[in-house]
Structure formats: structure tokens, C-alpha cells
Write a structure and sequence with these properties.
Elements lengths: L4 H11 L24 H4 L41 H6 L11 H12 L18 H12 L19 H10 L18 H11 L8 H5 L10 H12 L19 H16 L2 H8 L10 H17 L4 E8 L2 E12 L3 E2 L6 E2 L4 H14 L10 H4 L15 H5 L15 H8 L20 H15 L3 H11 L20 E2 L5 E3 L1 H6 L18 E2 L1 H12 L3 E2 L2 E2 L3 H8 L3 E3 L4 E3 L4 E4 L6 E9 L2 E7 L6 E7 L12 H15 L15
Helix pairs in contact: 4-10, 5-6, 5-7, 7-9, 10-11, 12-22, 13-17
């Protein structure tokens, strides 16, 4: 039976008066939890007047209600055709939300209920992260209960807009805070934490066996104990519909748009609201995958390509629609000892420069570095090209290989040696910093860059990027010896089978004792599997978003993709430090980077328009290049994959854990 408009509006009023029927268990949502990562967006502060409520966008004086967005329509004197409940709902719009999608319907639904409304300038802010203060405020509204007069948290004062909600959450056990007695209201709430909050809020019977529910998800073993039952409940009742396919990412933050989806599903669960249920049913986290026939064909092609070019071992990862879709492996990680798997870790060689650039972008987003500032600022030293004293040597110039720093391939990259080199005239060429005419591929300068970033952050690059790597579930490292799964290291082989880099060396490369002490690893030492590296490529292909959550700003990705100019010798456009070519492997534009050292020949690439991409890591292959300057062992399989990704018949029907409507 179709729900009438009046029934729908009545149910909306009813939801706003829901009572709290389930108290929290003794364990805390935050118990033993690490602080969530604050990416660039959480650092930004939206204007919020003294009496405003950022959870809903309220800016009214005390005692006045902020009305939800009003539908636009004809004058009251003109009769209107009756509208369906969904049409009524869709009349609530925001300029930054694409209409007509299930996600937009969830946002309109949450806005109509008054649970989530807008931020500044009438925008909804679908990608703004939900903080802990916002989350408990929404649940406090839903409870319809009174807040206690006393505040339980040491970092919440009576004047804070979220104080009543925090006091209520403490009283009811919805949230008990951290062990030091703080609430930490401005931290983003994670998927695990929000699941627990909603679970405790929900009217429920005992959940089904959570172990059985969770076994379908690849990373369920990473769930904290307090979150296992709540997350299983959330998955079982489609609160993560449209967000989760086969991987949960429990420590990932939640956006306002995603919370709107979860609130819609919660309403369907608690109230049996037919419209909320219909909207939730229309959500799907689609899982793309090749058909079994295409997977078999591609595995055979990987094996044949490795054999054709003499590779001892090879990994391939495929990106589609901005997500890692599949991965393949063949050959040996260590000959006659360990077959290569998709999880083995290889030195990615000069692809590391892209990974160092990601760290630079994270620090730029956080305001820790200025890309146009002299690098000497971070060294507390004067580092200027003496031939161009008025032109600073910058992070920007290093990223584009136009720094004018000398190409000292065999020079020490220890801190004292670099400082001595770059504070003297002999540390620079006669070229002008930052000019396209000064282009020269420079490994030494990237070692200097990594050190500069560490000095600016007072952290090593693993620590700088640990929050991003952690929420993405990646075991990767700028220092190969700090890979957690040390048994997955790979012996690197030269063409012909001799050892280029042994396991002991890979396991022994650890971070120096202090930030900026040694830059030897940054030009080529990043260590990962092809599917790990592909996840970072997908972050770029998605304009800095992972699973819909912004981890880097769009401006950072646009900067990395921005071309300095055309390099005629290589027939590519040099970016920061990506390159791109037009028409490569049948794509209008393909961003890419290659890498080679100690016998590895590697390649990453992505199409910014489609979100397709390929990462190929090899060991022991031939150094032959194709007609576009890419290592043939990589380009051959890359070309095949891009062809398959263009063919709709390559894909199987959706088999996501959430299913389809």
C-alpha cells in the first residue's frame, strides 16, 4: 500500500518524539579507541554564531525554531496537483546535493525530520565530517528527552551548543567519553563509534549472531570488541546501505550525507516507515567485478606477460569507478621458496615520488607547509640558488623536478650532509628554480623533499600518513623494514635471475631516530603491494575521497594533476610529480608514473574521467619500453586491462554484501 502524504508527515512528527528505550551496556563507545584522524575538512571551521547548532545549521536566536528548507512552488492561491510523499520530500533541495539520487532522498528525508538541515549559505555540506558533538545532538533530538542539569565531561561547558546533548548522552550511557574524562566533541565520529551510538539508541530485540553476519566482510577482524555487535546489527539492517560492500573500514569517519543515509535506515528499522524503507531499499554499495571468464582470461594474460618479459614475479591491481576492483599475481616472491601472492610487498621504486607527494598534500591541507615557501624555512637555514637569489627553491619546484638542486645521485642524504650541500653554492645548477626549462628528473631532490616534510611536521612520513593509511586498511611504509607483515617481503631480482635486493635488506630499512635525519628512502623506497598502491591511486582518481569520505582536498589532487608543461624528450606533460599523456592505451588522458630500481619495473596510472586505473609491480623483468616510454612488461598488461574496463560485457552482475534494490 502506498503511504499517503498525510501519513508521511505524521510519521515525521512522530519520529521527532521518539523515546529512548535501550540503555548502553557498561562498556564505552570510546573505550580503548584511538583518536580518529582529522583530515583537512575537519580542520576547517564553519561560521557558527553563539547560539547556532552546527549539527543542523541552526542560526536562530534562543527559543526560536529553525524551520527545515521549504519547498518552492506556486502561490497559495493557485491550486496544486496532489503530490506523492516522495515528490513532497524531493521538493526539499540543497544547491550542493545532486537531486534525483537515493542519497539525495536520504538527505531530504533527514532535513524534513529536522535532524540534519543545512550549514552556511543554504548548503547541506554532504562531505562535511560528522563530529562527536553533531552525532549526539542528532540522537538527543530523536530521544525527545530532557537533558540533566549537570555536565559529565571535563571539556564541555554549559555554554557549548551541544552541552545538553552531551549531558544527556552521558546520563543515558549512549556515550561515556574517554578514559581521561573528556568527550572530545570536535573529533570526527568513526563508523564503529556511530554504529554503537545508533545501536544503543535503537528499539531492538537481541541482535542475531554477529559472528555469522560479519564473516562476509574482509576486514571484520579489525573491528574493536565494543563495535562487533553494533556493526553487525547496522549491516544486517542496512544502515550502511550505499556505503559498504565487502569491506567495512571501521575507523573511517562519517560524512553528513552518509549519516543522513544511516538515519533514514534507522527510521525504517524503528518505525516501519514505508517511505524511509523504500529509500533505504534503493541504496546499494555496488561491487564491480569481472566475470569469472574475464578473470581467468586476465590471470592467463598476466602469466603470459610475465613469461614474455622474463619477470620472476608480478602483481597487477585493477581500479574501476574509483575503487580497487581486483588484483592478480604470478611467479615468485622469493624463488622456489614463496610464490607471489597479491598481498606480498615490493619496493615501488620511483612511484614513491607520488607517495611522498601525497604526504606533502596532507601537510599542505593541514597548513603545516606552504608549497611556495623556501625549503630553507623548514631547515632553519638559508637555502637559495646563488644564481637566482630572489627565486626561492620550493616544495612546488621539487615536485615538478625544476628545483635547480644538483643531481647528486650518489651523495649522502644524511641531514648534516644535505644541510652543508644546500647552504653552499655548489648545491645548485645554473638553472632557474621553478622554470620549465630547468626540468631535470632528480632523485636527490626528492630525498631532500621527504626530509623537508619531516622537519616541517616534526614527524617521519610514516607518522604523517599513518592516519590515512590506517583508515584505508593499508600495510605500507616509506621504510620497508616497518611493514607489519614482515613475512610478506619480496626478494627483488634483476633480469636474468640474480638478486637485486635481498629480504634481509628489505626488513632492515627502518625510520631514522629523528624526523629529517635521512632522506635515502624517499626517491624510491616506498613498499607496498600492487593493490595497496592502487588504493592510493584510487584516492587520486576520486578527487581525494575514499569510500565517499574526503581524506585529501580536491585542490590537493588538482594540484598534483596540474601540468607545468610539455617535456618533449619524454613526450609527456610534467605535473606534480605525476605525468600525463593524451591517447595512452586508448584513453583521452592518463595520469601515470613509472619506477625502476634493483630489478623492479613498475607502473601506476589512472583515467581521471572514468576512475579506471592499473598498477603493475614486477621483479626480474626486462627493461624494454613500449612506444610511449612505458616499460613493456607493464604497458602490455595495462593496455589489456584498459580495453577490458571499456567493455560492459567484462563485468559480472552486482554481488555486493548489501545487494541491490
Amino acid at each position: 500500500m502506498k503511504l499517503s502524504a498525510s501519513t508521511f508527515l505524521g510519521s515525521c512528527l512522530l519520529v521527532c518524539c521518539l523515546s529512548l528505550l535501550a540503555a548502553a551496556p557498561a562498556s564505552s563507545v570510546e573505550e580503548n579507541a584511538e583518536e580518529p584522524y582529522l583530515p583537512f575538512q575537519a580542520q576547517e571551521t564553519l561560521p557558527s554564531p553563539k547560539n547556532s547548532d552546527p549539527a543542523s545549521g541552526e542560526t536562530a536566536p534562543p527559543g526560536e525554531e529553525h524551520a527545515p528548507p521549504q519547498a518552492s512552488g506556486a502561490a497559495e492561491s493557485e491550486p496544486e496537483e496532489p503530490r506523492s510523499p516522495l515528490e513532497t520530500l524531493r521538493a526539499i533541495t540543497f544547491p550542493d546535493v545532486t537531486p534525483g539520487t537515493p542519497e539525495a532522498d536520504c538527505i531530504s528525508y533527514a532535513a524534513h525530520l529536522g535532524l540534519l538541515q543545512g550549514i552556511e549559505d543554504g548548503l547541506f555540506g554532504p562531505e562535511v565530517l560528522v563530529t562527536r558533538a553533531m552525532a549526539v545532538t542528532v540522537l538527543y533530538r530523536m530521544s525527545g528527552e530532557e537533558a540533566p542539569p549537570d555536565q559529565a565531561f571535563s571539556d564541555v561547558s554549559a555554554e557549548d551548543w551541544f552541552a545538553p546533548a552531551a549531558a544527556w548522552a552521558a546520563k543515558t550511557g549512549i556515550a561515556t567519553g574517554y578514559e581521561d574524562g573528556t568527550f572530545r566533541p570536535n573529533l570526527p565520529v568513526t563508523r564503529s563509534q556511530l554504529s554503537a551510538l545508533l545501536y544503543r539508541m535503537a528499539v531492538r530485540e537481541d541482535a542475531a549472531d554477529h559472528a555469522a553476519v560479519l564473516e562476509a566482510y574482509q576486514d571484520s577482524g579489525k573491528l574493536p570488541d565494543y563495535a562487533r555487535e553494533p556493526v553487525a546489527w547496522a549491516l544486517e539492517n542496512r544502515l550502511f546501505a550505499g556505503m559498504v560492500s565487502d569491506t567495512i573500514y571501521p575507523e573511517l569517519s562519517v560524512t553528513r550525507g552518509q549519516m543522513a543515509q544511516m538515519l533514514t535506515a534507522l527510521t525504517a528499522y524503528r518505525e516501519g516507515d514505508e517511505l524511509a524503507q523504500a529509500i533505504t531499499d534503493s541504496l546499494s554499495a555496488r561491487e564491480y567485478r569481472f566475470t569469472d571468464e574475464i578473470r581467468t582470461q586476465l590471470q592467463a594474460e598476466v602469466e603470459a606477460t610475465a613469461k614474455r618479459y622474463g619477470a620472476v614475479g608480478m602483481q597487477v591491481a585493477v581500479i574501476h569507478n574509483g575503487a580497487v576492483m581486483d588484483s592478480f599475481a604470478t611467479g615468485w616472491a622469493t624463488q622456489r621458496t614463496a610464490p607471489m601472492t597479491v598481498d606480498h610487498k615490493l619496493r615501488v621504486a620511483s612511484i614513491s615520488k607520488v607517495d611522498v607527494a601525497l604526504a606533502a598534500m596532507a601537510l599542505w591541507d593541514q597548513g603545516v607547509v606552504d608549497l611556495e615557501e623556501s625549503i630553507g624555512t623548514y631547515w632553519n637555514a638559508t637555502m637559495r640558488n646563488p644564481y637566482y637569489k630572489d627565486t626561492p627553491v620550493t616544495i612546488d619546484a621539487i615536485l615538478s623536478h625544476t628545483s635547480s638542486i644538483g643531481m647528486f645521485e650518489n651523495a649522502s642524504l644524511r641531514k648534516a650532509a644535505v644541510r652543508s650541500n644546500l647552504t653552499s653554492a655548489g648545491g645548485y645548477s645554473y638553472m632557474k628554480p621553478g622554470a620549465l626549462s630547468s626540468y631535470g628528473y632528480n632523485n636527490y631532490a626528492f630525498g631532500v623533499l621527504g626530509m623537508t616534510l619531516e622537519l616541517a611536521a616534526n614527524k617521519n612520513l610514516n607518522q604523517v600518513m599513518a592516519p590515512i593509511f590506517s583508515v584505508m586498511g593499508l600495510d605500507v611504509s616509506y621504510f620497508s623494514g616497518e611493514i607489519k607483515a614482515s613475512d610478506l617481503h619480496t626478494t627483488l631480482y634483476q633480469y636474468g635471475g640474480s638478486v637485486g635486493r635481498d629480504l634481509a635488506t628489505a626488513r632492515g630499512n627502518v625510520a631514522p631516530g629523528s624526523p629529517g635525519a635521512n632522506g635515502a628512502f624517499f626517491a624510491g623506497g616506498f613498499t607496498a603491494s600492487a593493490k595497496d598502491q592502487a588504493a592510493l591511486v584510487a584516492l587520486l582518481a576520486n578527487d581525494g575521497k575514499f569510500q565517499g569520505v574526503p581524506l585529501l582536498s580536491r585542490r590537493a589532487v588538482e594540484y598534483m594533476e596540474s601540468p607545468l608543461g610539455y617535456i618533449s624528450d619524454g613526450e609527456y606533460y610534467q605535473c606534480h610529480p605525476l605525468r600525463y599523456q593524451n591517447g595512452l592505451y586508448g584513453r583521452d588522458k592518463l595520469y601515470y608514473h613509472t619506477g625502476s630500481a634493483f630489478g623492479v619495473y613498475n607502473f601506476l596510472s589512472y583515467d581521471p574521467d572514468t576512475g579506471d586505473g592499473v598498477v603493475v609491480l614486477t621483479s626480474g623483468a626486462s627493461a624494454a619500453r613500449d612506444g610511449r616510454g612505458i616499460y613493456s612488461v607493464c604497458g602490455s598488461i595495462g593496455s589489456t586491462v584498459y580495453d577490458l574496463l571499456r567493455d560492459a560485457d567484462s563485468f559480472a552482475a552486482d554481488t555486493s554484501a548489501e545487494g541491490t534494490a
